[in-house]
Amino acid sequence: MSKSPIAWLKDVADHDYEAAFNYLSLKFDEKRAGESVSRMKKADLISRRANDILRATGLSPLPLTDPGVQRDLLKVLNGEKLSPVLVCDQKPDADIADGYHRVSLAYNIDPFMSVPLRLG
């Protein structure tokens, strides 16, 4: 098994939970957004392929020319580790609560790359 070109942190950065809440509070009321973030905090860290994450959420990958994807690419090139992704499984659809740029970067490098995430 070859080593991933992206180095990942062992766990989600604390500020990513706040970012997830801010995003989810635009889609849901604050109570529901908070409950989703609480579930993600308690969930085990798992890995899924970048293409599967995007398919399950109905999202298309952002291009390498996207400023957020470029920012994450520069971090990788500078040897920094990226934070695992937060995926909200609220019905009717799953959504990337935080980490869309990171999943897109992984997909653009290798669609089958394993991406660590918390699902909740």
- Bin the helical content: 40-55%
- C-alpha geometry: globular
- Give me the strand/helix succession: HHEHHEEHE
Query: How many E-type strands?
Result: 4
Strand order of the largest sheet: 1-4-2-3
Instruction: Enumerate how many helices there are, as a single number.
Output: 5
Question: How big is the Rg?
Answer: 14 Å
Distance between the termini: 29 Å
User: Pairing-aware structural class of the strands and helices?
Assistant: alpha+beta
Overall average residue pLDDT: 95
As for the number of domains, it is 1
How much of the polypeptide forms β-strand, as a percent range?
Answer: 15-25%
Question: How does this structure look, described?
Answer:
The model has no long low-confidence stretch (mean pLDDT about 95). The protein is globular. α1 runs antiparallel to α2, α3 packs across α5 and α4 (about 65-75) packs across α5 (about 100-110). The chain has one domain (about 15-120). The protein has helices at about 15-25, 30-40, 50-55, 65-75, 100-110; strands at about 45-50, 85-90, 95-100, 115-120. Strands 1-4-2-3 form a four-stranded mixed sheet. It has five helices and four strands. With about 120 residues, it is of the alpha+beta class.
Short structural summary:
This protein has 120 residues and is α+β, with helices and mostly antiparallel strands.
Q: What's the layout of helices and strands?
A:
Layout: H1 14-27, H2 30-42, E1 45-49, H3 50-57, H4 67-77, E2 85-88, E3 95-98, H5 100-109, E4 114-119
Parallel strand pairs: 2-4
Antiparallel strand pairs: 1-4, 2-3
Helix pairs in contact: 1-2, 3-5, 4-5
